[in-house]
Every structure is written in C-alpha cells, then in structure tokens.
Please model this.
Amino acid sequence: MERLEERLTLAFLLLSIICVSTQKTTVSWCVLSDAEEQKCLDLAGNATARNIRGTLLCVRGLSPRDCMQKIKNGTADAVTMFADDIYAAGFCHGLELAAGESYNGVDGVSYHVVALARVSSSDLSLLEMHERSSCHPGMRTTVGWTVPIGYLVNTSQISVGEQCNFPRVVGEFFGYSCVPGVKDPMHDPRGNNPKNLCEACIGDDNDRHICANNHRERHYGEAGALRCVAENLGDVAFVKHTTIFDNLDGKNQESWALDLELEDLKLLCPDGSEAGLHEHERCHLAVVPANAVVVRMEDKCRVWKYLERLQNAFGNVTEGFSLFSSAGYGKSNLLFSDSTHHLLRVLGSYGSWLGPTYTTMLQAFECEGKKDSASVCE
Model:
C-alpha cells in the first residue's frame, strides 16, 4: 500500500513538472481597459504573423474580481494580478498561478514594505504604536493598509472583533493619521469612519481635497507618506523600501524632498528594534510577491506553454512589439508590469508564491469568514 502511495505521489510530481499538451490551443486573456485591450489585440496579431502556435483572445473584464469570476466560470483563461488579488483568487475561488513576473532581482519578489521614521524619534517602536501618528499611501492598498494593519492584528496590538470594523479599531489605536481615501464613499458608505484617520492629511495648496484618494491630497501615495513624516505630521510612514531613494538626489524637486537627507531617517523593525535605510532585507514588515498570472488549476500547463512561446518571440526585443513594454498606448503596466524582465513558470501553489509572511498579513483580514466590506472575498 505504501509503495502505491509513493508511486502516486511521484506521478503527481512528474505531471506538475512536465507540461502535457492538450487539444485546446486558445488562451482568452482578461483585460481591464481600452489601452490594455489594444495591446492584447496587437499581441494577438503579432503572434499570428509570427506563426506562434495558439490563438490569443481578448476578453473585457470590469475589475480584477470580475476577471476572477470569468476565469472560474471559463469565459476567460488568464490575467496578471497583484499579490492581494492573487490571494483572493486562490482563497475565494480556488484559482492557481501559471507564471510570475521577475524584475531581474530576486525572483518572485516585488518589494519590501518598511516602516520609516525620523532618527530624532528616539522613543519610537513598532511594538508600542498606540496613540502615535501614522502616514499611509492610501486606503485598502497593500503598502498603506493590508501590510501595516495586518501586522498590528498579528502582533495583537489591535483586535477587530466580530464586527470586523478595521477603520474604527485603527482610528482608536492611532492618535491621528493620514489614510487617503478612508472617507471615500466606496470605503465609507455610511460616513462612519473615524475623522482622526484624516487629521495628518493636508489636501492641496488651497486646503481643499483633504484626505482625497488621489494626488490632490499632498500626503497621498508613496512620496506623500514620506512627506508626511518629513514634515513632522506623522511618527511613522508605511512605504516601499525604494521610496526614500526614489525621492532623493534631485529625483523629487519639491522643497520638502530637497531638504531631506538619508541620515534624517531610519527603519523600524517588527521586533521593536531599529535599522539603517539599506537594511530592508532584514528589517521589513513583509516581502510583497511579484505579480503573477492567475488561471484555473487545469490550465497551469497550457497557459504557461503559450506564454513561453510569446516570451521567446517578444520578451527581450529592441524593435517592434515588446511583451513587457506599454510605450505608445498612453498607459503603463498593460498585460504585464513594464519593469518585468522575464516570466517564471510557477510550479507550486498560489500560497507558495505569496510566501508565509505576506499570507499571514492577508489572513488577518479574513474576519472569521465574514463576507462584509473588510472581507478578502468581498
């Protein structure tokens, strides 16, 4: 009996490694905008012209969640998704991954989420953030919400309880914050989200659009959260590890950035310690996985083989159509991230791609299975 089980396990592993060809050669890609649909159509036309085996169809989706549903019910086969959506696709719909993006760095890694603070804040610790002030790039974003709030839940600094009202408990935890978009109707349909989550926001030059979910709020986004800390309006900013370097050395010409020096800032580590800005690999809240191509389990092999053929033809070209460039379409990151160097085949599950630390952050939002506005399966 044990021998039989061993053989079955070996057979499964071999099938997962060796792509078995199928009769179906059409791949339907879910696109989310006019620009992305046009690039998809151009890719299909170029693939046909090069006699690449298979046919690419472009299916219009309304949102990433709509694309998940289309893939689940078979009206689409594939779409590239961010890490949060990958988790929802797998956890809520049983979908898997065929390929992942690599940015010519560490394969499968997109960036690290870090907590930035001023060096002068000597009494600050991520383990004792109650009543301190915080700066977030935006509401319901990976960097600005999912990772830092997931960390607070997992370290038992906040508890959402049965009502699963994250904004309320976050507002009660921090003294004041800037969470752009927290008062938008889509995030706050009843107008009940705490006002103090907007108190560190400053709006535009005319004091309008305070806490807006766009760049009219000057503390919106990665640079905005950094500015929030630089201007002493927040104790900590939750940002990508690249944010500080993207805004120094003249890359950002705004006065607050021109006055900022590397030695003015530090990283706060999850264990309560501190680190230098270049130590993000050991001092971060989470490693955010790279984007990946979501498919049905039975299509992992078929979609990968087609993508492999497309990548061989259009992956690293200097002239003509480029798989990893959105130049000429008026938008960025169409079909794949423009920073993609190559695609990797994903042999394991969506969970193995996401990794344990990031998955743990997302699990904090499952709310004991409740499917309300904060649920991962909304």
The first strand starts at residue 26 and ends at 31. Residues 7-16 have pLDDT under 50 and may be disordered. The chain has two domains: 19-105+290-347, 109-287. The two ends are 44 Å apart (CA to CA).
